[in-house]
Amino acid sequence: MPTAAVAGSPSVDWPAFAAALGPIPHSLDPPLVKQKSRDFYWYSPILKHQLKGKFGDIVVTPRSEDDVLEVARLCVAWGVPLTVRGAGTGNYGQAMPLEGGVILEMTGLDRILSLDGGVLSVEAGKKLADLEAETQPQGWEMRFHPSTRRTATIGGFVAGGSTGVGAINYGLLRDRGNVLGLRVVTLEDQPRVLDLRGDDVLKATHAYGCNGIITRVELPMAPVQPWADVIAHFPDLASAMRFAQALCVADPIAKKLVTVIAAPVPQQFFRSLKDVIPGGRSVALCMVAENGLEPFEQLVADHAGGVCYCKRGDELAHVTPLYEFTWNHTTLQALKVDKSITYLQTVFSPGRHVETVLQMADHFGDEVPMHVEFVRLNGEVACFGLQLVRYTTPERLQEIMDYHEAQGCPIFNPHTYILEDGGMKEIDAVQLAFKRQSDPHGLLNPGKMRAWWES
Ligand SMILES: Cc1cc2nc3c(=O)[nH]c(=O)nc-3n(C[C@H](O)[C@H](O)[C@H](O)COP(=O)(O)OP(=O)(O)OC[C@H]3O[C@@H](n4cnc5c(N)ncnc54)[C@H](O)[C@@H]3O)c2cc1C
Questions:
Q1: Reported confidence tier of residue 290, pLDDT bands at 50, 70, 90
Q2: How far is it, in rounded angstroms, from Cα 2 to Cα 63?
């Protein structure tokens, strides 16, 4: 057993490490290792440049928590970095190994352990679509899910995501009560399994896998609703925004998704909806309970709009889910047409969100086409902007972000892979203290947590 290997150094004898893994599935095959070293970092022209040469050395695919513990033990013993991977759909290079080493692909841990009274206990590598395929027949669905529902894992969502479809009802992952418990494997000298409950879950939530390997997640679920996918169109962005706000506060109309996208984005970039959305119109893309469709249509008419698309029941099986045009999928649809597009992540705070969105749309015009998701922030309706940006230079991108911040619209910078520089902009003392305990050698996803190397 080697004792002094340097993390990520070429001195690691990878075939010997692979042999030490014994029966735990793994691969040193270069094309596979390359493929599993990627996520959707290329959404950002900045990250695309910074991360293009970053790859791991070996892919390991544990089948159980015991396998995870054994890989953790080996990584500590060999001084090898470990980057956890779910489905690799993160946007900021979160799952990309900066210092090589093990890529721990969690998709083999895919069992639902229990679903009792609307509380789900599930292994971290379970894909979200598979998860709901099992829970929906029992009457339960996820409170919210990323628009990557069809590909992402639950562990990756908790460790790398923030919220998504359903945010208008339940807010964000970090809101107390949305994650009830996590089981986490540490990279201590003797790796352990820790059970985090209550506010302790925040020690590993949205920590990019720097604080431990999540093996199990406990979540409260929502009762299943028959949702309809509906697109309403409006003469201008202002009418679409005012409609969306009115819908969000119309409590009798149940909804799961309220997205507003300004013209000409749908017409220019939503290829499969090109015959559906009238020219020049801004749109609201919504998921509305079937029993709310009638009052929904009245509300649309009150705002000078019309409904141009409505799919419900069995029809939904034959079309792309509408949520795949929303959240970060809006940017993906645009990137399919125009590779120079990138995006922002902006908070438009409760109270003045509608007018601020309209001001920003006026200010930047077609350089920053408006796209917002309506969410509930601490109980109040607000908007998250995922505006598109017609990218020119890094300097101009920074100017655009600075202008938003100066106008009181915080940016969650999607053009950095560093945890703190994205959202919180400050050291999370609780997460840092937990990392010191759970990963004393700094082997987990090294280079992502600024607090670690600055403390
Ligand atoms: C088109 C598109 C749309 C998206 N829409 C949304 C959205 O609506 N909302 C949203 O929040 N995000 C969204 N994302 C980002 C991403 O898809 C989600 O956050 C998703 O849940 C990540 O899951 P994953 O399994 O792909 O995780 P990965 O990308 O594999 O990992 C994400 C991070 O979590 C870590 N990680 C993964 N599994 C574990 C584990 N078991 N233990 C510890 N750490 C772990 C990884 O190291 C990495 O840092 C979108 C991305 C794309 C490309």
A1: very high
A2: 25
